Amino acid sequence: VLAYIVRRVLYAIPILVGVNLITFALFFVVNTPDDMARMQLGVKRVTPEAIQKWKEERGYDKPLLFNGAKAGAGKVTETIFFEKSVRLFAFDFGAAEDNRDIGQEIRNRMGPSLALAIPALLAGLAVNITFAMFMAFFRATALDFWGVVLCVAMMSISTLFYIIGGQYLVSKLWHLVPISGYDGGADAARFVILPVLIGVVSGIGSGGRWYRTLFLEEMSRDYVRTARAKGLAESTVLFRHVLKNAMIPILTGVVVVIPLLFMGSLLSESFFGIPGLGSYTIDAIQAQDFAVVRAMVFIGSVLYIVGLLLTDLSYTLVDPRIRLA
Amino acid sequence: VRIFLIPLLFLLSACGEAWNDPYPAAEQGENILYSAFVNRPKHLDPVQSYTSDEAAFTRQILEPPLQYHYLKRPYELEPQTAVAIPEPQEIEGGKFTVYEIRIRPGIRYQPHPAFVAENFSLSEAKVKSLKTPYELALGTRELTAEDYVYQIKRLAHPRLHSVLYGLMAEYIVGLPELAKGLKAADTDRSKWLDLREHRLEGVEVVDRYTYRVRLKGRYPQFKYWLAMPFFTPIPWEAEKFFHQPGMAPKNFTLDWWPVGTGAYMLTQNDPNARMVLERNPNYRGQAYPSEGEPEDAAAGLLRDAGKTTPFIDKVVYSREKESVPYWNKFLQGYYDNAGISAENFDQAVRVAIDGAAEPSGEMVEKGITLSTSVAATIFYFGFNMKDPVVGGTSDRARRLRQAISVAVDMEEYLSIFANGRGVVAHSPLPPGIFGRREGEAGINRVTHLWRNGQEERRPLEEARKLLADAGYPDGRDAKTGQPLVLYFDTTSRGPSDKARTDWWRRQFEKLSIQLEVRETDWNRFQEKIRKGTQQVYGLGWNADYPDPENFLFLLHGPQARADGAGANSSNYANPEFDALFERMKSMPDTPERQRIIDRMVSVAQRDAPWIFGFHPKDYSLRHGWLHNAKPNDMAGNTLQYLRLDVAQRTAKRAEWNAPLLWPLGAIFLLLVATAVPAARSYARRERMAARPQP
C-alpha cells in the first residue's frame, strides 16, 4: 500500500504542475501585470509611476518565464512564474492584495468552513441514506413513487431558493435562529444550524435518488434473495447486507469530497456571513486578487488529488477483495 | 412521553429571550452601535487608504489637523487637532506657499503596545502566541508635530503605495528627492526604514507642537488635504513595533492595526466577519456642535449641543455580503442603521406626489426614519473629443453632441434605473459645492428650458434640428447617405445590464442614430480611455474635497487622459475654459470666482463634451433609537456625534423577535404523521409470509 501511495503522490506532481501552468497562463497572459495594477489601484490619481511602483513592490516587474538579464539559476528563478507559482509547491502563498498573509487567512478560515461543511455532510449522508432506504424498502408502492416525485421536485429547485426561503421562514418569520453571522466556539452552533439544515434539505433530492438507485441495484442481487429465503428480517437484510455492499459507490462519492470540505461553500458562506474559505475565494474573484485565487486553485487541486487517493484506499477497507498494486 | 417532553423543554427553556439575536447575551443593554460593512477594507494605513469603505474605520481612529463641521452646509473646514486653520503665506513672490500648522498640546494617543519600550524586542514565539497586539502591555504618549511630519514623509516610502504621492510630489518641496533617497537607502527590506533619519526639505518641525509645510507655487486646495487621513499623525514607534519579525505573517501591521488619537480605537480586526471600534480612553473629547443648517434644530440635531463626544462606547461592524440578510437584520433591530438596495426600495420608501421621498408605512410603524442627501459625486457620459465623429471643436461636432445631450433623457434614466435616487446634472458641480447655481440660473440651457418654475428637457424636435444642422438629417450623413453609427463603450456586460444597454440604444434611436454598445471588461475599457480610442462612454467622480476645482479639473485640457495620466477622460480642451480654470483654481470663494465658474460652466455646456449625467442621492435609514445622524459626505469622523437610546432598542428588539414556536410543532407532527403509517406498513410487511412480487 505504501508503494501505491508513493506512486500516486509522484503522479500528482505533474498534474499539479499542469494545473499551475494553466492557472498561470490564464492569470498572467489574459491579465497582464499592468492590468492587475490598474484593477487594484482604481481610477483616481493613478499615474504610470504608481503602476510601476505597484509592480515593483509585488515583483510583477520581472519577466514572465525567462529572465535573460540574470545569470545562472536567476534566469529561471528571477521570474514571475517561479516566484508566484513554483513557491506554491512549498505552500508559500505570499500576501494578498490587502497585504494580509494568505497562509494565515487560510488557517483562520478553515475552522468556520469545516464547522459548516462537516455537519452538513454527515447529517446529509444520514438523511439521504435513511430516505433512500425508506424508498427502497417501499419500492414500487405509492410511498416510493411520491418519494421519487419529491426528489425530482427538490432537485429542480435552485440552492439559492432554499437559502433565501429558509432565511425567510426560519429566521425572519419564525425568529428561531440568527439570519446570518458567525461566532467561534460553541456559539457557532446557532449560526450554522440553519445553513446545515438548508444544505441537508437541498441535497435530499439528488442524494435520495442516487442512493435509492444504488440500494435497488443491490437488492436485486442473489445474496439478498438468499438472505430473505433464509428468513432474515427485512431490516437485517437492508442494514446489514445491502447497505454494506452499497458502500463502495457511496464511499466514492463521499470520500472524494471530504478534503474539499476545507474549501468551503461558496454560496452558503456568502449568504450566511460565515467567514470561511468559500467566502474568501468569492471575495478574491470579485476583487480580482489573483494571489488568493491562485492559492485557492492550487489547494483545491491538491485536495482533489488527496480525495481521490483516499477513495482508492477506502475501497480496501470496505471490500477486502480489492488490492492496491 | 419523552419524545414530546424533550422538544417541549427545549422550547420553554428559551422563552423570554430572542433566539435570533446574533450578538452575545453579555452585550445586551450595552451602549453599543451595531452596523454592517459590505466590502472588506483593503488598507487602514492612512498613507494607502483611500476608499470610503476604509474611511468608515480610519476616520474614527486617525486625526488629521483639520476636519469638516458636522452639521453646516456648504461644508466648512474647522480645526481638529490644529489650533486654527492655517493661513497660506506666499514667499519669494509667490514661488512658494508656506502652511504653518500648530497643534493643541496635551493630545494623547490611544493605549497601544508600541508606546512600551519592552515591546520592541519581542521574540517570534511571543508574537506567534498573540491573538491581538493589545494582549501586550499598553502605553501612550503625547501627540507632537514630529508625528505629522513623519506621516508626510511616509507618502514617499518605497515600501508603501500612496495614491497621493504623485500629486503631492508636484507640490511639497523635496518630496521627489526624499522618495529617491529612501529608495536608495532601502537596501534591506528586513530592516525597519527609520524616516526620522531622512530629511524632507519642504516639511520641518518648528517646535514640539508646530510644523511647517512648504509648497511649490500656490495650491489653495491643500487645506482640504489637511482634513484627510493622508495627513494624520503616525508615531514612529508604531512603525518600528510592527516591523518586528513574526508580525506580518500574523497580519499585525500598521496597515491593519492603525494607531491614532481619535475618539475610537480598533480593538478587533477581522475584516472577514467583524470589526470592532471601542472608545479611546485617552480621547480628549469634542463639544457637539451648536450650529448647523436652519432645519437641524427642528430635526433634533442640536439637542446635544455643547455636550462632550463621543456618546457611544463601542461600535460593532459585521460583514454582510448579501443584501437579503443585511436588510432583514436591520428590520429585526439588529442593525441600528442601513442603506437601501434597489430590491428593498419599494418596501422602504414611498414617493409622494410632489416627488419627495418618505419612509413607507411599514418603516414609520417601526419608528424608522429616512435621511436623503445628494452625494458630492457626478456620473457623466462623455464624448471623446479626439474622436473624428463626435469629437473636435467644429460646429458640426458640437451640434451633434448637443443633439444627443438633449435626446438622452436622464430624468427617465434615474426613474428606471435608480428609483429616482438622484438629481439630473446640468454642470459638473453637485449641490453643496461652491459655484453651483440652483433653480433657473443653474439649468443647462442647451438641454433644458425653465417653464412654470420648473426645469424641463427641451423637446426632441430641437434635438432633431440640431442633428440636421450637424449634417445628419434623420440620422444619416447628408453627404454620403450612410446611417450614423456611434459606439458606446461600457463595462456593463451581465444579463442584468441588458435593460440599461437597451435603454441607451433607444435614446439614440430617437434621433435615428444607431448605437453599437461595445461591452468590455474594466481593463480593456481603461485601456481604451487611456489611448483615447473610445467614442461615447460613462464614468463617475467622487469629490476628494468640496471645492469646484475638484470637479472642473475633469474638463481641464492639460489633464487630458490620452495625453498623459490626467482625469480628463473626454480629452476636452478649450483654451478659454483652461485659462479660466487656471485663474479659478487658486481663488478664494468670492463673487469673482463665482463669475468665472459661471463662465466655465457655460462654455462646457455649449461645447457639450459630456452628457451631464446625474448626481446620485444617498438614502439611509435608521431606527428611532439612533439620534444625531446626519449624512455628511466629507466628514468621516461622524461616529462620535451619534447617540443611542439603548433601553428603547432592547424593548423593540424583544417585541419584534419573539420566537414563533408553532411551526416547529407542526413540522414535528407532520413527521410523526408520516412515520406512523410507514412504521405500520413496515410491521405488516415483516409479518407477511411471502413478499409480494414488485
Q: Spans of chain B of 5+ residues with little confidence (pLDDT < 50)?
A: 1-15
Shape of chain B: globular
Per DSSP, what share of the residues of chain A sits in E-state strands of 2 or more residues? Answer: under 5%
Task: Kindly report how far apart the N and C termini of chain B lie.
Answer: 38 Å
Largest sheet of chain B: 8 strands, mixed
Quaternary structure: heterodimer
Distance between the termini of chain A: 7 Å
Helix segment count of chain A?
A: 15
Give the CA-based shape of chain A: globular
Rg of chain A, rounded, reads 25 Å
Largest sheet of chain A: none
Mean pLDDT of chain A: 88
| Count of extended strands of chain A | 0
Q: What level of helicity do the residues of chain A show?
A: over 70%
Structural class from helices and strands of chain B? alpha+beta
SSE string of chain A, helix = H, strand = E? HHHHHHHHHHHHHHH
Description of the molecule:
The complex is a heterodimer of chains A (about 325) and B (about 700). Chain A is an all-alpha fold and about 325 residues long. Chain A has 15 helices and no strands. The model of chain A has no long low-confidence stretch (mean pLDDT about 90). By secondary structure, chain B is an alpha+beta fold. In chain B, the strands form 8 sheets. In chain B, strands 13, 16, 17, 18, 21, 22, 23 and 24 form an 8-stranded mixed sheet that branches. A 4-stranded mixed sheet of chain B has the order 1-12-9-8, covered by helices on one side. A 4-stranded antiparallel sheet of chain B has the order 4-5-7-6, with helices on one face. In chain B, a hairpin with an 8-residue loop joins strand 2 and strand 3. In chain B, helix 12 packs antiparallel against helix 14. Chain B is globular. Classes of the chains: A mainly alpha (about 325), B alpha+beta (about 700).
Write a concise keyword list for the protein shown above:
heterodimer; A: 325 residues; mainly alpha; 15 helices; 0% strand; B: 694 residues; alpha+beta; eight-stranded mixed sheet; four-stranded mixed sheet; 26 strands; globular; disordered N terminus
